[in-house]
Amino acid sequence: MKFKIIQRKGGYLYVLLCIVLFGIWGCSDRESISPEPNEEPEPIVLPDKLKILSYNILEGMKTDRPNNYDNFVAWMKELDPDIVALQEVNGFRQAALEKLAARWGHPYVITNLKATDNYPVALTSKYPLESRRRVTMHVSHGAIFARLKDTDFNIVNTHFWPQGYWHHVGDGLGNAYRLHEMNLTLDSTFRKFPDEPDWIFVGDLNSRSRHDFLPGETTYDYGVTDQIEEDGFEDAIHYLHGKRSEGVTYDFQYPGSRIDFLFATPGVLQKTIKAHPIYDEFTDKYSDHPPMYMEVSLK
C-alpha cells in the first residue's frame, strides 16, 4: 500500500495518522507477537582434567611448513591438549594461527605480535580464554597472561632472551636481562593479583634450574628460576618426580640441561597428575626443543 503525500496545510499530519491507524489495523486481526527472550549462553563444561602443553615450535614450525603443517596437526590431534602455550610462532598473525589451531580443534587463540620482534608467543585452547594482559614493553619476545574463563586458573606464557652472556653484543648482560624480563613479567601478572592463588608460568626461559643438576656437576646462572621459586612457584616436574639427586631415576627421558619449564603455584601443584617432557619421533625431528606437558585435575 502506498501513501500519497498531500501538499496542503495539515497534509503531513494526515499521513502520519494514516500510518498509525494502519499499524493498529494491521495487527488487530493477528496474534500479538512477543519478542524472543534473550538466549542464555551455554554453560562451559570443562573436563575432569586439564591437559596443558608448552612448546617452542622452532621458528613457526618451519620444518613442517613445506608439508602444510600436516605432521604437526596430526601430532597435536593425537596428543589432544586442552591448552597450548607456543613460543616462536614466527610468521603467524591472528587469523593464520586461528586457521591452523582449528585443525587440531582449538577455536580460541590469543597472539602477541610485537612490531620489533619476529618470535612471538601465543595461546590456543579448546575452552574460552580471557586475555588479561599482553606484555610487550622492555622484553625480548613478550608474554601473554590469560585466564580460563569462569575459573580461577591463570596461565602466563613467555619466552626470554636467548643469548647466554650478552644483551647487546659484548656487554655480558644476557643473564641480567633475563632476570629483568622475569621480574617485569611477574610484576605485570602474578604479583599484581596476590589474592588469586592458582597460576601456571610456562615457556622457554632460556635459563637453567639448579635442581636439574647434581652438586658440582656444572655451574650456570640460576637467577631466573631462583626468582620464580622465591615468588612461590615450583616446577611441576620436580614437584612430581623429585629434584635430581644421586640414585634418582625417572620413567621418562630427562633433559638435564633443559630451558623450558612448567612452573605452578601450590594449589595447582596439589592437583597435578602428570608433568614431563615429550620425546617421540615427531619432537625429535621438528623442533630443537622438547615440549613440556602437564595434566591438572579440575575436580
Walk me through the structure.
Helix content is 27%, strand content 22%. With 299 residues, it is an alpha+beta fold. α5 runs parallel beside α6. A six-stranded mixed beta sheet has the order 3-4-2-1-12-11. Mean pLDDT is 86; it is low at 1-35. It has helices spanning 11-28, 58-61, 70-79, 94-103, 174-188, 223-230, 236-241, 266-269, 281-286, and strands at residues 49-56, 83-87, 108-111, 122-125, 129-135, 143-148, 154-159, 199-204, 234-235, 260-264, 272-277, 292-297. It is built from nine helices and twelve strands. It has two domains: 1-34; 49-297, Deoxyribonuclease I, Chain A (4-Layer Sandwich), CATH 3.60.10.10.
Please give a handful of descriptors for the protein shown.
alpha+beta, Deoxyribonuclease I, Chain A, 2 domains, six-stranded mixed β-sheet, 12 strands, disordered N terminus
Number of helices, where a helix is a run of at least 4 consecutive DSSP H or I residues: 9
**How many domain modules?**
2
User: How is the largest sheet built, in terms of strand order?
Assistant: 3-4-2-1-12-11
Category from helices, strands and their pairing: alpha+beta
Mean pLDDT across all amino acids: 86
Strand content: 15-25%
* Dominant shape: globular
Keywords: Endonuclease, Hydrolase, Membrane, Nuclease, Transmembrane, Transmembrane helix
InterPro entries: Endo/exonu/phosph_ase_sf (IPR036691), Endo/exonuclease/phosphatase (IPR005135), GPI-anchor_lipid_remodeler (IPR051916)
Transmembrane segments: 12-28
Domain Endonuclease/exonuclease/phosphatase: 53-289
